[in-house]
Amino acid sequence: MLKRIVCLLALTLLALFTWWVLWFMGMGALTPEDELLATIGPALQSESREPAVWCLLPSWPTLQPLVQLLLDTPTFFAMFWNACKLAFPQVAGQLVVAAPAAWAFSKLELPGRRVLYGAYLVLMVLPFQITMVPNYLVLDRLGLMDTPWAVILPGVFSAFPVFIIKKGFDAVPQSLLEAAALDGAGPLRCFVSVGLPLGLPAVLSAATLGFIEAWNAIEQPMLFLKDKANWPLSLYLSNITAGDLGLAMVASLMMLAPPLLLFLTGRKYLEQGIGLAASINEGM
């Protein structure tokens, strides 16, 4: 009982830290600009010696920052649309490429399969800074620099979705595939009719994680997109000055909304995919 209480208290504290950030942004979006400058403004000014404070609730709630963002900031909508153009095609391409590759690694007997899968795992753990120069040279030679394809194509061939989806396909019983083969189903029919339905949690887990990564990407758009007209929303927040604190709070909430809604929608499948991968690793 004591261990449960300690564990519950620790998890509660961690949850409070997470919810404090959301509360901070939510209340900041409803706080007047002058009050924000008086409370947390000193923390953002290097020359100020006044202490920064924070009130749990605004003294007089206002929707003026939201109105300013939605009605008087067309740049926000342009970058929001740019983020959608980069994230959704990237996730769709990841599923088209990763699902067949994961099925091949999981169920097909191919020469050198383990070696090739090991190479995929090595690519998965490499940080972006290592692959940055090769990607830049290839994209420049193809003439794709400063276009949305410069961000989409490298993300489509990411190795992480292959790893996630393969764990889901590993749980597909071999007996089902043998029964489907006896009924006359070929490899493609087994993949479409048996593998994809049973591996759906892993596929949706990969889609959820891939969208969050693509939506929050900063280094790739900053490097491959020189024209600010093509910048996504993740690069918009850095252009908001300290004098627009209310606008920054509202923009942060708007940027958080799509990944949060997607996570809440696919949370069940994400938990199933992660639990499935953990159970397979324990069995191995």
Annotate the secondary structure layout:
Blueprint: H1 2-29, H2 33-39, H3 64-72, H4 74-107, H5 113-125, H6 128-142, H7 149-156, H8 160-170, H9 174-182, H10 187-198, H11 200-215, H12 219-224, H13 245-265, H14 267-283
Helix pairs in contact: 1-13, 3-13, 4-7, 4-8, 4-11, 8-11, 8-14, 11-14
Write a structural description.
The protein is mainly α. The protein folds into two domains: 2-62, no CATH class; 70-283, MetI-like (MetI-like fold, Orthogonal Bundle), CATH 1.10.3720.10. Helix content is 73%, strand content 0%. The chain has helices at 2-29, 33-39, 64-72, 74-107, 113-125, 128-142, 149-156, 160-170, 174-182, 187-198, 200-215, 219-224, 245-265, 267-283. The longest helix is centred in the first third of the chain and has 34 residues, at 74-107. It is globular, with a radius of gyration of 23 Å.
Quickly count the helices: 14
N-to-C SSE string, H for helix and E for strand: HHHHHHHHHHHHHH
Profile the largest sheet. Answer: none
Question: Which structural class do the helices and strands define?
Answer: mainly alpha
Termini separation: 33 Å
Question: Globular, elongated, flat, extended or rod-shaped: what is the shape?
Answer: globular
Helix content: over 70%
* CATH fold topology of the largest domain: MetI-like fold
